[in-house]
Design brief:
- The protein has 337 residues and is of the alpha/beta class.
- The chain has two domains: 6-44 and 203-296, no CATH class; 60-201 and 298-332, Rossmann fold (3-Layer(aba) Sandwich), CATH 3.40.50.
- Helix content is 36%, strand content 23%.
- It contains ten helices and 14 strands.
- It has helices spanning 18-27, 42-54, 60-76, 96-107, 119-132, 145-153, 176-186, 203-209, 215-230, 300-310, and strands spanning 83-88, 111-116, 137-138, 141-142, 158-163, 192-198, 239-246, 255-263, 267-271, 276-280, 285-287, 295-297, 312-319, 325-332.
- Strands 1, 2, 3, 4, 5, 6, 13 and 14 form an eight-stranded mixed beta sheet that branches. Strands 7, 8, 11 and 12 form a four-stranded antiparallel beta sheet that branches. It has a two-stranded antiparallel ribbon with strand order 9-10.
- A hairpin with a 5-residue loop joins strand 13 and strand 14 (325-332).
- Helix 6 packs parallel to helix 7 (176-186) and helix 7 crosses helix 10 (300-310).
- It starts with 17 loop residues before the first helix and ends in a 5-residue tail after the last strand.
- The protein binds S-adenosylmethionine.
- S-adenosylmethionine binds at residues 36-37, 40, 45, 48, 89-91, 95, 116-118, 144-145, 164-165, 167.
Length: 337
């Protein structure tokens, strides 16, 4: 069948999981995109960790690590014992180790719940954490952010939720407030939500940070995954990785980065498993999130406004020496009246 709409996927298609069907739906929508988690299968997660730690121009990992190194004890003491540590979009949890160590020092043993769509990857990382930290219980949750939050909501312990690596900034700017409000609904006054967010506003530094170094993950591995999951014949050499910075100057909305793949020429891609052809126009883009943004760049006023609109109060915040990265601790605000 020659069509490019998800509804036209062949009736013979069986055994494509629901989460993968959501990828087909977004890829065949009028604005072609994939949910951001799709980039992070096991290989994508490994590549991300490898590239991010060795990058000389994308410093988010290093900035956040240095803040956590200095303030892990402060963050860990924001909740009282017994507490559960939850890591939204945990990936390898490499920086989270600093919080785990601080909580062990303060409280002894506790439960750690990494939440991530990359289920196999976080299970492997979880086993490594249990070996490295005897007495730590790791209960990985393979699923979407909000499902993970709901999953832990009824636990008796106080909850310390981390959302590190500027990952919150990949949520659509149109849905960020709503998503934080949803999280707020699931929390009680003794819980805390800790966000790690990028504050880099330097145009030149940003253009270097989002250069070709990311092609192995955002183009090559992504296309490899699409071809594997759906029996596709997409050619990596016929898509170019693109970066754009969108600057905003109000307190209501942060600046953001847009990452995409651009089709080099008009082309038809066939997905055998789906019985589906997708036609790309020359210059047509595939985005990595349903919203306009891939990665927001904040200032403190915007973060305070975001907290206020979402039913949170800023409990504390810490920046690095260059003041281009921030870890912010949000406490549920009293919304009783
Ligand atoms: C940029 S990585 C951050 C990894 C780690 N927290 C860090 O700071 O190094 C984002 C992670 O979020 C996960 N992710 C993205 N969207 C998600 C979603 N909607 N629900 C659950 N996990 C998601 C990805 O699989 C990936 O592991």
């Amino acid at each position: 069948m020659t069509s490019d709409r998800a509804s036209d996927v062949s009736d013979d298609v069986i055994d494509v999981a629901d989460d993968l069907m959501s990828v087909v739906a977004s890829l065949t929508s009028s604005r072609r995109y994939v949910p951001q988690w799709y980039v992070y299968d096991t290989r994508g997660s490994e590549l991300c960790e490898e590239l991010i730690q060795k990058s000389k121009t994308y410093k988010v990992w290093q900035h956040e690590y240095s803040i956590l190194q200095t303030h892990a004890d402060d963050i860990a003491s924001k909740v009282s014992y017994p507490a559960v540590l939850v890591d939204l979009g945990s990936g390898a949890s490499s920086k989270t180790r600093l919080i785990i160590e601080a909580m062990r020092k303060l409280y002894g043993n506790f439960t750690f719940v990494p939440v991530d769509m990359a289920k196999e990857f976080i299970e492997t990382c979880g086993r490594r954490l249990e070996t490295d930290y005897p007495g730590l219980t790791v209960e990985p949750f393979g699923g979407l952010y909000m499902d993970g939050v709901r999953h832990v909501a009824s636990r008796d312990e106080a909850k310390l939720l981390l959302w590190l690596g500027n990952s919150f900034s990949n949520v659509s700017v149109h849905h960020q407030v709503e998503m934080l409000q949803d999280i707020r609904e699931q929390l009680t006054e003794r819980d805390r939500l800790v966000l790690g967010v990028d504050m880099n506003a330097d145009r030149e530094a940003l253009s270097q940070a989002y250069g070709d170094q990311w092609i192995p993950i955002w183009r090559d591995n992504f296309i490899c995954r699409l071809n594997k999951d759906f029996g596709g014949n997409m050619d990596v050499d016929r898509f170019e990785f693109d970066y754009e910075l969108v600057e905003k100057s109000t307190d209501e909305e942060p600046s953001y980065v847009v990452l995409s793949l651009i089709s080099s020429g008009k082309q038809r891609v066939h997905f055998e498993t789906l019985g589906l052809d997708i036609d790309f126009e020359d210059g047509e883009k595939i985005y990595f999130y349903e919203g306009p943004n891939t990665s927001c760049k904040w200032n403190l006023r915007q973060l305070r406004r975001l907290a206020e609109k979402s039913g949170f109060a800023v409990d504390a915040h810490w920046t690095n020496d260059e003041e281009n990265y921030c870890v912010i601790c949000l406490a549920p605000a009293d919304t009783s009246d």
